[in-house]
Amino acid sequence: MTNPPQREHPVPSRQPQKKIITPPPRVRLVSPPPKKPKAGAIAASIAALIMLMILFSTPIGGIFFNMARYPYINQFPATARFEVMRSITITSSGGSFTIDLPKAPVISSEGGGFVQNVKSFSTVPTATESTRYNSWTWLTFNRYVSGTETFSIDYTVETRTLQWDITAADSGMPGDIPQTYKSKYLGREWLGSNGLFKIDPQNKVIQDKALEVSKDVPTVYEKLEKIYFFLQGSYKYQQGSIGQEPKDALTTYNTGTGDCDEVSFLLVSMLRSVGIPAWVEFGMLYDEIRNTWVGHAWVQMYIPLVSGGGYIVNLDPVNYQFLFRSANRLTEWIEDGNGEHLKEFYEYITYVSSSTPSITTKIEGFSYSTEGTVFMQDKSREIKYIDAPGFGETIVACVSAFILMSVVNLMRIKRGSD
Length: 418
Description:
It is a single chain. This protein has 418 residues and is of the alpha+beta class. The chain has two domains: 41 residues; 314 residues, C8orf32 fold. The chain is 30% helix and 35% strand. The protein has ten helices and 18 strands. Strands 1, 2, 3, 4, 5, 17 and 18 form a seven-stranded antiparallel sheet that branches. It is globular. The two termini are 38 Å apart. The N terminus is likely disordered.
């Protein structure tokens, strides 16, 4: 474009003058070569990974790891109402089947009211009810199955959280426990196929350890506390195999791992070995985080009071509940100290068939609502957070942290190159 000729002294005009601005010369921007990851950043990431692995494999690391996994470990609903169904599906080319299951009872609280109130109950197909072991109602399905058939028990239940505020000063001695409990719950139970008892207070290894742990304290509460927290610090939960016998108490003791019933067998064995009657309670547990129901087992025992009387209390050694019963559970059966009855509870399906059937069990929840909140006020939460994660959990946590740090470093490098 050519500029118009200009006078040396321009004459003013009514039209505004146009000012033409010449654009600056174009500048070509040349990107610098990408920066190579600094050796220091890589070394820092590797060092951080090593430090994380060391940290997570210690009790200190367990505190942070478990707080992430269980942020509400000490918080439970005051009451719960739910509908849950236990079902068994059988596929067979032809055979006669008998299924025997205990009926979940109404359980009253010693302080009044209920712990577990069964509002409604139904079975499909219709089961036969009978009383066994003097007091418990059992449900029996007798059926010839050719093809696939499902048997189910459906409950609508209200439950309540209980917490026992008992201290060593409140507790009586083992000699104060009523004989009715001692006569039922101090012996061995269920001789397994390997020749070892599932509950065995007479095993010398178990007995010696229980005596060693609790020898310096006199009351039932203190002995219980010593044995319970010894198990909490020494044993880890490991899910058992479905359809197989649970491990016996000695095997659980030697391996340091066990399912809910196996750790309960060991706890009961240790308590009985020092003269404290204890027994196992069976049922279902609701996991609010995963929104699932699972079969479960925990422990009951009797604590006498120096003021007279006493309480039947609950302990859940794999869910870290000490003198505490959360509302997110359903009791189906409480064992009576008879090993044959305990074995029959596990062997609840019998059949006569020319071929091996396929048997699938399932627990399904259809509704779950709660009211109120109870905070567990005991040492269980401390022990939970002291428990260090396992090797696999440590590796997963550290690798995840390493990947996260690597991504952050790459983003920083990319931002620096821009």
